[in-house]
């Protein structure tokens, strides 16, 4: 045991306390920027190979490649989101007038095809007839509790739109900085990981980057595929504004909400327009598109990261439930690093040589290991008398052999 004087112990405790306070203070200062920082690191780690390819094509100019990447992020993420919000605000008066007119006139009688829908058609038709027979007052009384809750939720979310754009701006700025100085940040992170965990720490950092790229590949490719198929279905069935709805589906799929809000609303609109055949076809296509998310995304993630499928699914689902959308990337990274370190620690313990018992002579461990390695299985185990009785005893250790050789050489010299 190491002897520590009271003064050294107090000094060590004081150093640990000061370092802990500095780390807590740093995290506290960076807390408002933490969501944007996590998103920026995720985006840069996912698209880094694309940035390097652009830099090679743009005469080796990093700032040109960074500019192209930031513009692409604006087009893919910010532009559809801004267009969707602007469209909702622009049509708010039309939606209000439609709701007001339905509240004054009441619902018409349901169409005949509604009762023919399997499973839920008859019940939906009965409920519709009851609301239509109750008149405007009955409809308002039925819808009012849900309308109040929906309005409260909508006004609460409107207040966070400005904060959302602030986070988007910070994400773009941090992403641009990391695109320009990514190599320096990666080297610093690898050096810190090697300082903490040696080769295992460096391996964990590289695996974390692979996990982020694999999850991003699975999410983006699946979202693009679902959006394109959904947009094709909207165009074939004659739903208006298929391009805008396809862009909205892409944003919803990347946000892990899925294409169902757009597709099911379009199905309801087709039924409302008395087009049950087209509505049913779009409904079947919507179910198929929704199933792609459960098959395509795990396969792509598994292809990009050499990790067990169960670990990937647990990281994606658990991370999203715990941290929200950003947990889709944080969850697999945490589980991947933990899995790597734990597996390395277990394998290192299995490969460690067997310790010699206390008081055993030097070389006993080596001799025992050599004997265990040279004994065939059929002679060391099994019933019947052992065939080791006729063999010489266990091999002598290396030090004993050296001593015997020196003694024999001394006797030869004496005789001479």
TrEMBL record:
Protein name per its UniProtKB record: Membrane protein
Family as reported in the entry's similarity comment: Belongs to the autoinducer-2 exporter (AI-2E) (TC 2.A.86) family.
Localization (cell): Cell membrane
TM region positions: 12-30, 36-54, 63-89, 161-182, 214-237, 243-264, 276-292, 312-345
Comp. bias intervals (Low complexity): 357-408
Keywords: Cell membrane, Membrane, Transmembrane, Transmembrane helix, Transport
Coiled coil (UniProt feature): none
NCBIfam families xref list: PRK10983.1
Keyword match Transmembrane helix: yes
Keyword Membrane: yes
Organism of provenance: Pandoraea nosoerga
Gene Ontology CC annotation, any one: plasma membrane
Pfam family, one: AI-2E_transport
Primary location group: membrane
């Amino acid at each position: 045991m190491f002897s520590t004087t009271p003064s050294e112990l107090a000094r060590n405790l004081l150093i640990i306390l000061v370092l802990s306070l500095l780390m807590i203070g740093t995290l506290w200062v960076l807390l408002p920027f933490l969501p944007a920082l996590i998103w920026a690191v995720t985006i840069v780690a996912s698209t880094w190979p694309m940035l390097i390819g652009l830099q090679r094509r743009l005469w080796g100019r990093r700032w040109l490649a960074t500019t192209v990447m930031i513009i692409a992020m604006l087009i893919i993420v910010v532009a559809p989101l801004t267009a969707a919000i602007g469209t909702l605000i622009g049509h708010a008066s039309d939606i209000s007038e439609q709701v007001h007119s339905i509240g004054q006139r009441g619902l018409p009688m349901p169409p005949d095809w509604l009762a023919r829908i399997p499973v839920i058609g008859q019940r939906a038709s009965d409920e519709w007839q009851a609301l239509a027979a109750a008149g405007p007052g009955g409809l308002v009384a039925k819808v009012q509790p849900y309308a109040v809750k929906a309005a409260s939720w909508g006004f609460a979310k409107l207040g966070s739109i400005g904060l959302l754009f602030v986070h988007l701006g910070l994400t773009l700025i941090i992403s641009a900085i990391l695109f320009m100085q990514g190599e320096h940040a990666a080297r610093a992170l690898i050096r810190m990981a090697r300082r903490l965990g040696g080769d295992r720490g460096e391996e964990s950092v590289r695996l974390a980057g692979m996990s982020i790229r694999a999850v991003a590949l699975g999410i983006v490719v699946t979202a693009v595929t679902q959006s394109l198929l959904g947009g094709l279905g909207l165009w074939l069935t004659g739903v208006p504004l298929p391009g805008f709805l396809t862009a909205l589906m892409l944003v919803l799929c990347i946000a892990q909400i899925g294409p169902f809000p757009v597709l099911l609303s379009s199905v309801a609109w087709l039924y409302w327009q008395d087009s049950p055949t087209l509505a049913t076809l779009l409904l079947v296509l919507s179910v198929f598109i929704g199933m792609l998310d459960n098959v395509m995304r795990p396969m792509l993630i598994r292809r990009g990261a050499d990790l067990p499928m169960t670990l990937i699914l647990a990281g994606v689902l658990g991370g999203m439930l715990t941290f929200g959308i950003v947990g889709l990337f944080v969850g697999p990274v945490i589980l991947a690093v933990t899995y790597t370190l734990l597996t390395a620690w277990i394998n290192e313990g299995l490969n460690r040589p067997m310790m010699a018992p206390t008081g055993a002579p030097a070389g006993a461990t080596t001799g025992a290991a050599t004997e265990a390695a040279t004994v065939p299985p059929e002679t060391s185990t099994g019933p019947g008398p052992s065939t080791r009785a006729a063999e010489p005893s266990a091999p002598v250790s290396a030090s004993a052999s050296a001593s015997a050789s020196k003694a024999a050489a001394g006797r030869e010299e004496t005789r001479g």
